[in-house]
Design brief:
heterodimer; A: 9 helices; B: alpha+beta; 5-stranded mixed β-sheet; two-stranded antiparallel sheet
Chain lengths: 211, 366
């Protein structure tokens, strides 16, 4: 039997935390619960989970802070009730491996957490759409030329994922291996992160000059 | 409320300055013919000093101090009363204009903004009385009914102006409070909804009671539709993502289908005809997924590509062979709506590999 996946659940809603504990099933072991970002960060260092599931909206910085502080050491998956929250992409840019919408089924949430624990991105159609829009946006801003633009192939992959195709069907469509699709997705996320960081630095530098 | 009061003070300050410029100009032009040139010069000078003082920075700061300056208001009211009272003495009776002009009103307005309608009206009446006293002292013979009336009307006019200004300021304050409260409520509502959505998601997941699950799903759909915001933009066009979210929420309510919206920002707004076509086509497409594909989820994708809007509906359900009855049915119900507005439809499916329905719509006539 393979080892159970250790999960840290960070969410300010108690009903959600107990729900995760009750439902995730045999393959998972909820090693800890946190009701705010600071506790989540402390507990992660203490308990060394395989994956951190963090609510986007929490006291003391929310999922954004959890992703920013933990993603170098642990895969962080953002949980959200609505994919229209504008800070969602910020959390991904800060290092989260993806997000899961809370109205997904247990099976989907479990699959997402398991993929994240294996080091794979949790990349849904709606996230792909947000990322596509973000790259288009940063290419449009005159002084904000992204350091990393998407290759044609990466854009094709992203668009097919946004249309709701699985990695396997994306691969079939483009005549490439499923594994390659996954690598593309990983590279796209990495580029998004670098661009975000670069944007942040530029923004900070500009502010510094203005003041 | 600080900002509003400061704004009103600033408005009074501008009014006072303009009134003083007028006072000074009129006095300069008629200087040669007035009876008491020294008094006129003194009045204009003092009023000018007070007007300037409102613009000068306080000793402790670089900006004119905001708000209530009792000393200055007092000096202004005394000067205003003297100008009104001295009217008859410094000018001769035949002159149609009055010496102080509207400058004394600035003091009344300053009081009105900060202290309310009653003090302002009282001071206005006080100015009327000052004029009466001035005329008695100047002692210009014959008292007539029209002279008494003129004195009374001075008081009434100042009092009315002060009262009206205070009333308007009060209304502005109330309006500002209402706006602040509404904003706070919207913020609280968003927080609350977040919590309610969480709870509804948990109920759907954990309850074994089918009716309860259906109820929670339907409530969630209604809440999401509300949270998505109004479909109509300010220009009367329809926001694509809001339309898609509302249509998805409806399908989730009717069929229990979970719909993921993958909308690539920014999306353009649609004209009424195209919006109706998109809504109808997506509704049909999702109904088809729910009834025939045997899938419990679908992805609706939308992106603007140049002059076209591309919308696709993807499911991982049963799929079908091209040319079958199901394809023809889907094709007919969707194609009719889309071609009517100049769009195109593409259906791709294989048995066991799900279905992708793609709509392309022109954005020009939007």
């Amino acid at each position: 039997m393979t080892a159970r996946i250790k999960v840290l659940v960070a969410d300010d809603h108690a009903v959600w935390r107990s729900g995760m504990r009750a439902e995730l099933g045999e393959a998972f072991w909820v090693v800890g619960e946190a009701e705010d970002a600071a506790t989540a960060i402390r507990l992660a260092h203490e308990l060394r989970p395989d994956v951190v599931a963090a609510d986007l909206r929490m006291p003391e910085g929310g999922g954004l802070r959890v992703a920013a502080e933990l993603s170098d050491e642990f895969p962080v998956v953002i949980l959200t009730v609505s994919e229209t929250h504008d800070d969602l992409l910020e959390a991904i840019g800060a290092g989260a491996v993806g997000y899961l919408v809370k109205s997904s089924t247990v099976a989907e949430i479990g699959a997402g957490l398991a993929a994240a624990a294996r080091g794979e991105p949790v990349f849904s159609a709606s996230l792909a759409a947000l990322v596509l829009g973000d790259f288009a946006r940063s290419a449009r801003t005159p002084d904000g030329k992204p350091v990393k633009a998407l290759s044609t192939r990466e854009r094709e992959v992203l668009r097919l994922v946004a249309r709701g195709l699985t990695y396997r069907t994306v691969g079939e469509e483009l005549y490439i291996a499923e594994r390659t699709v996954e690598n593309h997705v990983r590279n796209i996320l990495e580029k998004l992160r670098l661009n975000r960081r670069d944007e942040l630095i530029r923004w900070a530098a500009k502010r510094g000059l203005d003041e | 409320m600080q900002g509003l009061d400061d704004g009103l003070d600033a408005a009074v300050r501008v009014f006072r300055t303009a009134a003083w410029v007028w006072l000074a100009a009129v006095s300069a032009l008629s200087f040669a013919s007035v009876e008491q040139p020294l008094a006129v010069a003194a009045g204009v000078g003092v009023a000018g000093a007070i007007t300037a003082a409102w613009w000068l920075p306080a000793p402790w700061s670089a900006l004119p101090p905001p708000g209530w300056r009792p000393g200055l208001v007092g000096a202004e009211l005394v000067t205003g009363a003297l100008l009104v009272a001295g009217d008859d003495w410094v000018l001769d009776q035949q002159r149609p204009q009055s010496f102080g002009g509207v400058w004394p009103l600035a003091g009344v307005l300053a009081v009105a903004v900060r202290s309310g309608s009653r003090p302002a009206a009282a001071i206005g009446l006080g100015f009327g009385a000052a004029r009466g006293v001035g005329e008695v002292l100047a002692d210009r013979g014959e008292w007539s009914a029209s002279r008494v009336l003129a004195i009374c009307s001075t008081g009434v006019l100042f009092a009315l102006a002060g009262w009206a200004a205070a009333w308007a300021a009060q209304r502005l304050r109330t309006a500002e409070r209402i706006v602040a409260r509404t904003e706070a409520r919207a913020e609280v509502a968003a927080e609350l909804h977040d919590g309610v959505l969480q709870t509804l998601a948990v109920v759907q997941r954990r309850s074994a009671d089918d009716d309860l699950v259906r109820l929670a799903r339907s409530q969630e759909a209604a809440l999401r539709r509300y949270l998505a915001g109004p479909e109509l933009t300010d220009t009367g066009e329809v926001a694509v993502d809001v339309l898609l979210r509302a249509t998805a929420a409806e399908a989730s309510d009717r069929f229990g289908l979970r719909v993921e919206i993958a909308a690539v920002p920014p999306l353009p707004a649609l004209g009424a005809d195209v919006a109706t076509a998109v809504r109808g086509a997506v509704r049909e497409g999702l109904a088809n997924v729910a009834k025939h594909a045997g899938a419990d989820r679908a992805v609706v994708f939308a992106e603007a590509e140049g002059p076209r809007l591309v919308v696709s509906i993807r499911d991982h359900g049963a799929g079908f062979d091209p040319g079958t009855v199901r394809e023809r049915g889907l094709d007919a119900s969707v194609r009719r709506r889309v071609t009517a507005v100049g769009g195109a439809v593409d259906v791709r499916s294989r048995p066991g590999a799900g279905t992708t329905l793609t709509l392309e719509l022109p954005l020009e006539d939007a």
